[in-house]
């Protein structure tokens, strides 16, 4: 039976059960009235929310460590890595979860698209939007990666239409856009001051109005290329949510849920980790945000950090409130059960419960998603399956927990090799931002290509942004500042350690504070100390070169030369430096000497 007030966009019974009403949450104090004591047969309405975040176009089951979930084996009590994810399995998991729930909504907290593997990224993420329509996504906030291709492209994702440059990908088939609303309450047009997209969405759950407010992190401009956020302003998460919560209450919407593309860092990587009393087991930006959001917001769904948690964090009144995140790549979904009071229109906060569930690959595949995936895989196959290089073992990037990652070193080496010729920029050193490494290179064959073969599709999954490379001249003093900015300024609390080409070495002492953690006397380029007054030609992708990720020293560089894309350089390096008989071995990742906390040099 459909939820009253639904959009009616889906016609199957399954989809109707998963669609239509949205948004929920308002504080009800834990009093006798809130629990219904002293009243005759109070009427409540149950609402199930199924939440995902940071899907990043991972239609196919993610490979390597990106495709596993850490959990405790109930039989042995040991920590194990369980294969998880893949849109065919996610669709089945969500559909199974909805069974028996008259009111169920599927929501997301941003980065549904962007930084996507080739089968989605090659088609500007149209396949992922179509897949989200199929699985019954009802609403999502924007994330920072929704702006990777700019606001006009994001609006196309919402409203449909063929790509302005590449056109339509199949004859007779026009991209229809998202069936669900993208929410961007804190993203405004700098000229008009108005939100780029809807700030919230309200639906009716059998007589109870439920509203969702969607925001992305305020710092989005610092982690997206300047072109992607041109002309846009990004407001504070708390201020924005509280503003629109007040507006919703004036409209009689007393059940409110916030979808926030910002997250936390749990103390454990186990997917069902218990954060403990008052959320003490989770840290990061979302903790401070959650503690300041209006108590009228009854539940908070988060993302961005790619972690999993289902925590209770106190609101400004000290009342525990559910704050959740479902890792990334469709490996988990969060089930949040709400009870709505039909008399007050609010969420009965003490009854809210939430838990993460693994999207296991022993589930039956959803036939409609299999058909969608096969259609786009066939279109992409001529490009995706082309061999581009060979490796002798796994080269870990996204799956490495070390500050210096083997795949990061390999990428930096590729960039230096491609841009060191005088006519290509004369680069003397190359840097790669760790967040731009989106996957691992896995030795085991993903298809029919054979073990150790790197296909174009696999290389694309590692470097999906197709950022253009730049070579700039930095003084030696500025080059030192780049290294110091890894661990100071906006990166002081959460260092962003750049991946470096093989000719640069230095020591990082984590026992020190701020910029002092970089031991300047230890820095050697081609075996020689850095001359503060000399000029050095430095290669970096356009995001880093523009000062992204908190590196303003890059932006101060001069004599810019724009080179090939990072993906083209990576593929060229793999092709030119490996063969079936002489594959590339994983770099030793020994360019940065790290003195850990508690150790001595």
Automatic annotation (TrEMBL):
InterPro entries: 5'-Nucleotdase_C, 5'-Nucleotdase_C_sf, 5'-Nucleotdase_CS, 5_nucleotidase/apyrase, Calcineurin-like_PHP, Metallo-depent_PP-like. Gene3D superfamilies: 3.60.21.10, 5'-Nucleotidase, C-terminal domain. Transmembrane segments: none annotated. Residues 396-555 form the 5'-Nucleotidase C-terminal domain. Residues 1-32 form the signal peptide. The keyword Nucleotide-binding applies. Keywords: Hydrolase, Nucleotide-binding, Signal. Residues 49-307 form the Calcineurin-like phosphoesterase domain. Pfam families: 5_nucleotid_C (PF02872), Metallophos (PF00149). It comes from the Bacteria. Belongs to the 5'-nucleotidase family. This is Bifunctional metallophosphatase/5'-nucleotidase. The lineage of its organism: Bacteria, Bacillati, Actinomycetota, Actinomycetes, Kitasatosporales.
């Amino acid at each position: 039976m459909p939820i009253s007030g639904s959009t009616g966009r889906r016609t199957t019974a399954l989809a109707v059960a998963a669609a239509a009403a949205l948004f929920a949450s308002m504080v009800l104090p834990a009093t006798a009235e809130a629990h219904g004591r002293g009243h005759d047969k109070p009427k409540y309405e149950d609402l199930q929310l199924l939440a995902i975040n940071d899907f990043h176009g991972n239609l196919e089951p993610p490979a390597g460590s990106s495709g596993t979930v850490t959990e405790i084996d109930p039989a042995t009590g040991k920590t194990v890595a369980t294969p998880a994810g893949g849109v065919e399995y996610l669709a089945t998991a969500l559909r199974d979860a909805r069974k028996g729930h008259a009111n169920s909504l599927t929501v997301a907290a941003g980065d549904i698209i962007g930084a996507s593997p080739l089968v989605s990224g090659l088609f500007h993420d149209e396949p992922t939007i179509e897949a989200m329509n199929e699985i019954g996504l009802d609403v999502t906030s924007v994330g920072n990666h929704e702006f990777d291709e700019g606001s006009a492209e994001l609006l196309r994702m919402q409203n449909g239409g063929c790509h302005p440059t590449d056109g339509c990908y199949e004859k007779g088939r026009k991209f229809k856009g998202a069936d669900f609303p993208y929410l961007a309450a804190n993203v405004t047009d700098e000229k008009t001051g108005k939100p780029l997209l809807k700030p919230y969405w309200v639906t009716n759950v059998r007589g109870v109005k439920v509203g969702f407010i969607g925001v992305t992190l305020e710092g989005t401009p610092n982690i997206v290329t300047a072109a992607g956020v041109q002309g846009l302003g990004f407001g504070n998460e708390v201020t924005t949510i509280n503003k629109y919560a007040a507006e919703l209450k004036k409209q009689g919407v007393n059940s409110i849920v916030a979808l926030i593309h910002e997250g936390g860092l749990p103390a454990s990587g186990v997917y069902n980790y218990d954060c403990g009393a008052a959320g003490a087991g989770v840290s990061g930006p979302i903790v401070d945000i959650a503690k300041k959001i209006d108590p009228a917001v009854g539940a908070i769904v988060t993302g961005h950090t790619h972690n999993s948690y289902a925590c209770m964090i106190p609101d400004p009144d000290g009342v525990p409130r559910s704050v959740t995140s479902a890792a990334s790549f469709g490996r988990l979904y969060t089930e949040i059960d709400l009870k709505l009071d039909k008399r007050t229109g609010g969420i009965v906060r003490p009854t809210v419960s939430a838990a993460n569930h693994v999207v296991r690959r022993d589930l039956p595949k959803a036939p409609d998603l299999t058909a969608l995936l096969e259609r786009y895989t066939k279109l992409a196959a001529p490009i995706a399956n082309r061999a581009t290089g060979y490796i002798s073992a796994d080269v870990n990037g996204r799956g490495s927990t070390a500050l210096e990652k083997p795949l990061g070193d390999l990428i930096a080496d590729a960039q230096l090799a491609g841009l060191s010729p005088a006519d290509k920029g004369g680069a003397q050193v190359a840097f790669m931002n760790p967040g731009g490494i989106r996957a691992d290179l896995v030795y085991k064959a993903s298809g029919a290509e054979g073990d150790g073969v790197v296909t174009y599709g696999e290389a694309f999954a590692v470097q999906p942004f197709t950022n253009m490379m730049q070579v700039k001249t930095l003084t030696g003093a500025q080059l030192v500042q780049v290294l110091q900015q890894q661990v100071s300024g906006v990166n002081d609390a959460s260092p962003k350690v750049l991946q470096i080409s093989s000719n640069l070495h230095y020591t990082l002492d984590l026992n020190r504070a701020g910029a002092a953690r970089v031991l300047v006397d230890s820095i050697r380029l081609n075996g020689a100390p850095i001359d503060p007054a000399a000029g050095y030609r430095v290669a970096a992708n356009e995001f880093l070169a523009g000062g992204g990720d908190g590196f303003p020293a890059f932006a101060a560089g001069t004599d810019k030369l724009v080179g090939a894309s990072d993906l083209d350089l990576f593929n060229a390096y793999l092709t030119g430096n490996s063969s079936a008989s002489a594959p590339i071995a994983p770099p030793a990742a020994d360019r940065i000497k790290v003195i850990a906390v508690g150790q001595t040099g």
